[in-house]
Request: fold
Amino acid sequence: MSVDKLKRTVLGLIAVSLFLVSGAVLAEYPLNLTEGVTETSHRVYELHMIILYVVTVIGIVVFSVMTWSIFHHRKSKGAVAAQFHHSTTAEIIWTVIPILILIGMAIPATQVLIFMEKTGDAEMTLKVTGHQWKWQYDYLDEDITIVSALHADDRAAAQIDSGINPESIDNYLNNVDNPIVLPIDTKIRILTTASDVIHSWWVPDLGWKRDAIPGFINDNWTNIKKVGTYRGKCTELCGKDHGFMPIVVHAVTKEDYAVWIEEKKAEKAEAALGKDMTMAELMEKGATVYAANCAACHMAQGEGAAGLFPALAGSPIATGPAGDHISKVLDGKNLMPAFKGQLNDVDLAAVITYERNSWGNDAGDMVQPSDVKAAR
Reply:
């Protein structure tokens, strides 16, 4: 086999390999928009396709004329450029036609925008509040609040030198401890705001995203048509753990949603009783609450981040009077948010007890839900 033939063979194999690899990549990362599971997402997708077809036709026509003109009027054929300085007809044509095209595209785009803003006649309202770095969901019609943070398994794998292979976790960095549950075939008004910095709530399958701005409320709506799990994330750079505040929506039937609501109400009622817990119960629950709400700043072992977030290991707050510790967690200070509106008495009692008895802290005392309730 000649050297040239060998080169052609090798190049051919490389080309085939690149084609196969590109096919796999495209299967994993589709190039088109997500069609989604709501009427809004379908309309947005259809609008995108209409505009894509229009600009594709324009591109083909323009580049075809350019290519034909360059080929047939090249110097080697003896072509001589025409000499003129003004053509009213040409200027009218290349002004009127683009205007008509833009109007033709603006009409369906405006219709979709108007449709997306119709938040009236909603059957339920969900308030979404962005925190550094988690989401709080208030079901305003049911008086239920849940806080959704990165799942503990994902957070553990994300630690430096964790020894955990991220590939062993399905949907790595896209899992949460408390997914939100929404009913299908229900018009849901979604209010977005934030407690600290600007966040942005985005679930691609819903067909829109909204900024969550402190002191301001944006609204939108959705009506999910298909049962399933839909994932999203914060799309506004909001700080150190911006990449670690995913969104998970479980869309269920109306019947299953009603059952879930009753379960959450029962949990809330039980938490409100303020029953005493054992040290083992407080420590076990406290570890989970700490990982979801505190570890992002104070680190997994309570070592803190120098110059930014104080260490809890050996902290005068965590080893001092329990009342001061409760007040600090409830009301917050500086960069630390107030947790009295985010966590219930059981969660707060558990995490405070955990902080006072971990990483060498040996306060030896227990904070009960009744203690937190009394301090509110």
Remarks:
- The two ends are 86 Å apart (CA to CA).
